[in-house]
From TrEMBL:
Pfam families: Myb_DNA-binding (PF00249). Residues 9-62, 63-113 form the Myb-like domain. This is Uncharacterized protein. The keyword Transport does not apply. PROSITE patterns: HTH_MYB (PS51294), MYB_LIKE (PS50090). It comes from Solanum tuberosum (Potato). Keywords: DNA-binding, Nucleus, Repeat, Transcription, Transcription regulation. Residues 9-62, 63-117 form the HTH myb-type domain. It is found in: Nucleus.
DNA sequence: AATTGTCGCAACCGCACGTTA
DNA sequence: TTAACGTGCGGTTGCGACAAT
């Protein structure tokens, strides 16, 4: 037996959101919250939309403090470094960039950043000019690169990242709090957990991990080299 | 000015996982 | 124990905007 669809596709509107729909959704959520049930929300809010569509629209566009527009060099560096250490875990990467959404970062990576990286326009953390304190280009573009650009395979992009971002950027506190709170209630890991040296699954004992982190985590920045996905 | 090609982004799709009854 | 359900995530697609010819 197949999985039941989340909504009746024949009776929901699809495609771009109108300003009126945006206003309805925003007003409803600001007034009542999501109620912890996205499926029921559209009906309550008077929208002919799928609950998943409402959720996506809210998270990626209507939510307060969403940042759109150009990414800074520092954001580029964070994305590249985290991609090098945890891969395409866009939601985790987004959690490290306030105001950015996973969808935004994913689109940015697929359309621009990957190319920038290949062309050598992303400064790496270990490639800062100590005299001027300004970033050097990771791989200064050569005439060859500029004139005969070839698409790179996923493997070669991975190699580029690995070679350029040997020092992973630590995830910031909020993720860790979320993780800790979650684990306090459960006593084990929901899915996978990874530091720069260790990887765990949901069978791993929490005390064991805490001990490993405390004994091995200091990287001189007062942070742990911790990657977490859940 | 018209046509064609490319790019960027919003939105959709399907799957995996956690929760609940 | 297990099936149904809700949520979140990553991959993919569709389409409008813009550039090139």
């Amino acid at each position: 037996m197949g999985r039941a669809p989340c909504c009746d596709k024949n009776n929901v509107k699809r495609g771009p959101w109108s300003p009126e729909e945006d206003a309805k959704l925003k007003e409803f959520i600001e007034k009542y919250g999501t109620g912890g049930n996205w499926i029921a929300l559209p009906q309550k809010a008077g929208l002919k939309r799928c609950g998943k569509s409402c959720r996506l629209r809210w998270l990626n566009y209507l939510r307060p403090n969403i940042k759109h527009g150009d990414f800074s060099d520092e954001e580029d560096r964070v994305i590249c470094s985290l991609y090098a250490s945890i891969g395409s875990r866009w939601s985790i990467i987004a959690a490290q960039l306030p105001g950015r959404t996973d969808n935004d970062i994913k689109n940015y990576w697929n359309t621009k950043l990957k190319k920038k990286l290949i062309m050598g326009f992303i400064p790496s953390s270990s490639n800062i000019n100590q005299r001027t304190k300004s970033p050097n280009l990771l791989f200064p573009p050569t005439s060859t690169l500029q004139t005969t650009f070839q698409p790179q395979s996923q493997a070669s992009i991975s190699n580029l990242l690995r070679d350029s971002y040997l020092e992973p950027i630590p995830l910031v506190q909020p993720n860790f709090i979320t993780w800790a709170d979650h684990q306090k209630a459960n006593g084990y890991f929901g899915n996978n957990f990874q530091t720069s040296q260790f990887q765990y699954d949901h069978h791993t004992n929490i005390e064991e991990v805490k001990e490993l982190i405390s004994s091995s985590s200091s990287n001189g920045n007062g942070c742990n080299n911790v990657g977490y996905w859940g």
